[in-house]
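Input record, target 12 of the design panel.
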């Protein structure tokens, strides 16, 4: 925004200090004058003569005093205003550096707590969050580029082989190209869904999370039966506010992960919803291999597939839990992943209750 030039805050404070000091001096001199004038003996002729003499003697002294106060007010006010606004200058310099793209510096304003230090600490916290967010976005962009490049490179290799070997079985080539293309489509759709959740560009309605859990479970029941797993769904009505489509996608991702990352035989998945005073919770637990706590804390990051526990036939695109986390945050909720002592994971999504 282009603004017309104006007086600096330091100059305004200096003039304010000087004006206040001049006003206080003028009031003090007026009080002194009134006190001296009341000390004169009554009498009309004598009173006029005495007041004239008092004014003649008092006026030069008052002018000198006011001039002295003006100089002291301007010089002292300029110095005091500079001392008071010094932290603001550091904050302004840091803001300009941040606007130019430098997010690694901090103000780190020393001293006891006051309004300027609260502002500086809040600005430092904002810079830290922005720096972490930018770093995360850069990592995400690099990972996404790598993931998108992989199916394209595989497609290019298959086409090169087909061109160099015209007698190769076309059905096998088509099948492999179909699988690679399907993976690229899944990755693109996952990225679009993740972007939509991050932007919070969706309509909010009242949604019963327990019904969403039942819908997701019924959809994935054939996959669970194919893997010889049992799914148990239980819980209370859990009304919340949000997008039914996104919450269904979130729940489907959780149940799908619980099915895929499970024991090869006799595994189980438990889907539970619960209502609390101001929140609703969706908990998905599954049996499986033991998950290290350090690994569990990274599974919700984009393209972190947890290679120590997944099956290669259902590797996915590495965005399942990242989408869950993004959808939960878009609904002002939280995602918690805790390894189970007996193996597997306990994943809890907490959302505000309607």
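The sequence produced for target 12 reads:
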């Amino acid at each position: 925004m282009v603004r017309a030039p104006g007086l600096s805050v330091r100059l305004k404070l200096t003039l304010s200090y000087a004006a206040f000091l001049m006003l206080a001096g003028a009031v003090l001199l007026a009080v002194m004058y009134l006190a001296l004038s009341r000390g004169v003996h009554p009498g009309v002729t004598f009173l006029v003569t005495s007041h004239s003499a008092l004014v003649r003697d008092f006026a030069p002294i008052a002018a000198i005093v006011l001039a002295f106060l003006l100089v002291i007010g301007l010089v002292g006010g300029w110095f005091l205003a500079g001392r008071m606004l010094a932290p603001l200058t550091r904050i302004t310099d840091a803001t300009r550096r941040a606007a130019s793209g430098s997010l690694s510096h901090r103000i780190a304003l020393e001293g006891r707590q006051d309004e300027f230090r609260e502002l500086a600490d809040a600005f430092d916290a904002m810079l830290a969050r922005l720096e972490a967010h930018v770093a995360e976005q850069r990592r995400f962009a690099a990972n996404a580029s790598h993931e998108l490049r992989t199916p394209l490179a595989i497609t290019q290799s298959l086409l090169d082989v087909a061109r160099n070997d015209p007698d190769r079985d076309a059905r096998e080539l088509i099948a492999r190209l179909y699988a690679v293309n399907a993976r690229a489509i899944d990755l693109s759709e996952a990225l679009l869904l993740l972007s939509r959740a991050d932007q919070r560009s969706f309509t909010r309605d009242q949604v019963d999370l327990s019904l969403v859990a039942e819908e997701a479970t019924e959809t994935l029941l054939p996959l669970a039966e194919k893997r010889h797993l049992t799914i148990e769904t239980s819980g209370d009505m859990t009304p919340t506010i949000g997008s039914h489509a996104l919450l269904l996608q979130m729940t489907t991702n959780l149940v799908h992960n619980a099915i895929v990352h499970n024991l090869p035989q006799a595994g189980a998945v438990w889907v539970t919803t619960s209502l609390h005073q101001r929140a609703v919770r969706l908990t998905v637990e599954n049996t499986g291999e033991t998950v290290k706590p350090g690994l569990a804390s990274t599974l919700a990051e984009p393209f972190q597939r947890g290679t120590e526990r997944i099956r290669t036939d259902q590797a996915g695109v590495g965005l399942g839990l990242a989408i869950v986390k993004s959808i939960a945050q878009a609904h002002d909720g939280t995602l918690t992943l805790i390894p189970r002592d007996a193996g597997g994971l306990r994943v809890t999504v907490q959302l505000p209750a309607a």
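The longest strand covers residues 267-275.
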